[in-house]
C-alpha cells in the first residue's frame, strides 16, 4: 500500500533551558508526505513514513524578548507496526505503535545575540490511529493521526545555555491510498 498525504505537524512544545521562566514555542508546519505500508498478514502491517518538516523556534516566558531564535528543517522518518481491522467493509481502521528518529537539518540562527546554536537528533516512541475508506479494490481515502515523542537536547552560545526541548508533535494527515 502506498499513500500520499498532506500533513499538519502541530508541536506541543515546552523547554527546560536552565533559565527561570524560559521556554520556547515551535511553529506548526504543513507539507506533503509519502508512506509505504507492507502487510505481513491481512491484519498486521509495517508503515514507513518520510517527510521533511520546516519549523521556527521562538523564545517564550523570560526569553520572549529574544523573539525568533532559530529555524530548522526536520527529517523525522517514522516506522509503525499496525493492526488493521478488516470486518468493517470499505472502512478500514488501524492502530499502531512505532519509533521515530529525527534529524535536525539546516539549523539557522535568527537571533543576533546567539552566536551558536544546535539541536541534537532524537529518538522517540510513536502512537498511531487512522483509517482508510476504500472506494474500490485499489483506491481509497485516508485519515491518519500520530503522536511523536520528540525531546532533543539544545545548546546555544557554545554551551552557555543548554537544555531539552519537548516538541512532541501531533501529526494529522489526510490523503489518497493505493493498495496493490
User: How big a fraction of the residues is strand?
Assistant: over 45%
Residue-averaged pLDDT:
95
Strand order of the largest sheet: 1-4-5-8-9-11-12-15
Tally of contiguous helical segments: 0
What would you call the structural class? Answer: mainly beta
**Which radius of gyration do the C-alpha atoms yield?**
19 Å
CA(first)-CA(last) distance: 6 Å
Question: Which CATH top level class fits?
Answer: Mainly Beta
Give the CA-based shape: elongated
Largest sheet: 8 strands, antiparallel, barrel
* CATH third-tier fold name: Porin
Helix percent reads under 10%
Counting structural domains, the number is 1
List the secondary-structure elements in sequence, H or E.
EEEEEEEEEEEEEEE
Q: What's the number of extended β-strand segments?
A: 15
- Uncertain residue segments: none
Structural features:
mainly beta, 180 residues, 4-stranded antiparallel sheet, OMPW, Outer membrane beta-barrel protein, Porin
Could you characterize what this model shows?
It is a single chain. With 180 residues, the chain is an all-beta fold. The chain has one domain (2-178): Porin (Beta Barrel), CATH 2.40.160. It contains no helices and 15 strands. It has strands at 2-10, 14-16, 22-26, 29-39, 44-50, 53-61, 68-75, 78-84, 91-109, 117-119, 122-134, 139-148, 153-156, 161-166, 170-178. Strands 1-4-5-8-9-11-12-15 form an eight-stranded antiparallel beta barrel. Strands 2-14-13-10 form a four-stranded antiparallel beta sheet, with no helix packed on it. A hairpin with a 4-residue loop joins strand 13 and strand 14 (161-166).
Amino acid at each position: 500500500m502506498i499513500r500520499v498525504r498532506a500533513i499538519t505537524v502541530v508541536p506541543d512544545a515546552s523547554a527546560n533551558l536552565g533559565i527561570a521562566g524560559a521556554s520556547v514555542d515551535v511553529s506548526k508546519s504543513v507539507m506533503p508526505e509519502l508512506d509505504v505500508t507492507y502487510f505481513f498478514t491481512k491484519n498486521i502491517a509495517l508503515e514507513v513514513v518520510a517527510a521533511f518538516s520546516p519549523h521556527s523556534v521562538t523564545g517564550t516566558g523570560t526569553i520572549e524578548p529574544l523573539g525568533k531564535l532559530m529555524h530548522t528543517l526536520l527529517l523525522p522518518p517514522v516506522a509503525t507496526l499496525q493492526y488493521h481491522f478488516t470486518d468493517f467493509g470499505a472502512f478500514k481502521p488501524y492502530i499502531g505503535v512505532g519509533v521515530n528518529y529525527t534529524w535536525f537539518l539546516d539549523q539557522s540562527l535568527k537571533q543576533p545575540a546567539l552566536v551558536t546554536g544546535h539541536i541534537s537528533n532524537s529518538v522517540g516512541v510513536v502512537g498511531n490511529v487512522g483509517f482508510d475508506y476504500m472506494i474500490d479494490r485499489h483506491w481509497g481515502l485516508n485519515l491518519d493521526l500520530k503522536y511523536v515523542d520528540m525531546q532533543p537536547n539544545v545548546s546555544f552560545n557554545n554551551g552557555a545555555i543548554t537544555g531539552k526541548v519537548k516538541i512532541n508533535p501531533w501529526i494529522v494527515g489526510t490523503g489518497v491510498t493505493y493498495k496493490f
